[in-house]
Design goal:
about 425 residues; mainly beta; 16-stranded antiparallel beta barrel; 19 strands
Length: about 425
């Protein structure tokens, strides 16, 4: 019995020592930086629009002047980040986005098609692979990234997470005239040196068949095929400067051809005659200091051969998935600025807890149809918009938003006020 008890005692000591050793290893492991990164962002919104949602509200504005208001709940974006650092400078990153809480096929009421119902399938449906890239980092100033990447043209595309703008929905001007978030497959060289960050990208051109009068090139990066057509090519450039404390100033530009970037390739057709050159220039800034956050941007775009788009084969073919009826503008612009002050910065207890409450205002003006193609006018596309509201941030990763906004259209049309409420998050879990 004594031998048995002695043996059990020695075994217990060994097991205890082994457990403590494993525990120490486990604690040591948790202190290491994980090579796996998991995160994301998302938002849930409520809107009440105090204007007509009828398809003819612009063609017959007087008839819809007193139409009832309408509301909606929405989940515009729910995004999952996944990344992994393989070591030796190799890493991979992905971003999967669920738009409007759905997947696959969606029914939409098309204002541009006389209000008829259409069943549309975007690439990947309402679930999109917004980023998938493999990166090799040689140094802080030299990184090469290949795959599906964000095209950082303008303020919204470069900083599209919901904690990077005050309004409940993404800034409307840039979100109207350009893809948002603009993502395409290509290759990128980027880096940071001193007070500058820079990026150059080589991409497939946009598809001119997707351009519209109310959205300009907004849907030009979409593909209804299982691949992105790359008969034509484009480049995107961006540079940001951080020399002034609390200030970031960015310049970005895009150039590429869009006509003929379709499948199948008609080498002797309109793609050989016309180019549909798309050129965009943008300047933007963010100031975050002294309890203020101020953001602004100005974007201007040009589309060559715009008058020819309406008569392209795919737009005339009623069975094609492209837009058919409207002209597209040769010019588009979007200018916006917003400013918010943290009033909790003046309350010591709340400031120490990290809580922030911004009172903000925003003004923007934009027009996706800024020129009269072939003398045709769509005056309702010229919009001025204002918004005032609050952003409450109980912690850094969470924001609760509320705003009153109003679109001001030309005098022929009815203005469009609304109330928007939303809650959003952005951060990493691992």
């Amino acid at each position: 019995m004594k031998k048995v008890l002695y043996t059990l005692f020695i075994l217990a000591l060994c097991l205890t020592g082994h457990a403590q050793e494993n525990s120490a290893d486990s604690t040591h492991q948790t202190k290491k930086v994980s090579r796996l990164s998991v995160g994301g962002y998302g938002e849930a919104n409520f809107t009440r629009n105090f204007y007509s949602d009828h398809v003819s509200r612009y063609s017959q504005p007087e008839e819809h002047k007193n139409d009832p208001s309408h509301g909606r709940f929405d989940i515009p974006h729910a995004v999952i980040y996944l990344g992994y650092d393989f070591g030796q400078g190799w890493s991979v990153g992905t971003e999967i986005e669920f738009e409007h809480g759905g997947a696959g096929i969606a029914y939409e009421k098309e204002d541009e098609e006389g209000g008829e119902w259409e069943q549309e399938t975007e690439k990947g449906g309402e679930v999109e692979l917004e980023q998938f890239w493999i990166q090799k980092s040689f140094a802080r100033w030299a990184n090469i990234r290949a795959g599906h990447i964000v095209v950082p043209i303008g303020l919204n595309n470069a900083h599209h997470e919901p904690t990077h703008y005050f309004t409940v929905y993404r800034p409307e001007g840039e979100n109207t005239i350009m893809p948002s978030t603009w993502h395409q497959t290509g290759i990128s060289f980027w880096g940071r040196h001193g007070d500058f960050r820079y990026e150059a990208q080589f991409l497939a051109g946009l598809n001119a068949d997707q351009f519209t009068n109310t959205g300009w090139i907004h849907k030009g990066h979409k593909s209804s095929l299982e691949f992105d057509v790359a008969n034509k090519y484009a480049t995107a450039l961006r540079i940001d400067n951080y020399s002034i404390p609390g200030m970031r100033i960015g310049l970005s530009g895009y150039y590429g051809h869009s006509i003929g970037n379709t499948y199948p390739n008609d080498a002797n057709g309109t793609g050989a005659t016309y180019h549909g050159a798309v050129a965009i220039g943008s300047i933007d800034f963010t100031y975050d200091a002294h309890n203020w956050i101020v953001r602004g941007q100005a974007d201007y775009g040009y589309l060559g051969d715009a008058a020819e788009l309406k008569y392209m084969y795919n737009r005339l073919n009623s069975k094609s998935p492209y837009k058919h009826s409207a002209f597209v503008s040769s010019h588009a612009y979007a200018v916006g600025i917003e400013a918010g002050y943290d009033i909790f910065s003046q309350i010591q207890s709340l400031r120490q807890q990290g809580q922030r409450l911004f009172l903000f205002g925003r003004y923007e003006t934009y027009n996706p149809y800024a020129s009269k193609t072939n003398g045709v006018s769509y005056d309702y596309t010229a919009v001025q918009r204002m918004a005032v509201g609050v952003n409450y941030r109980p912690i850094r990763q969470i924001v609760v938003k509320g705003e009153y906004s109003k679109r001001f259209l030309k005098s022929l049309y009815n203005n469009e006020p609304s109330v928007n409420i939303g809650v959003a998050y952005e951060g990493f879990f691992l």
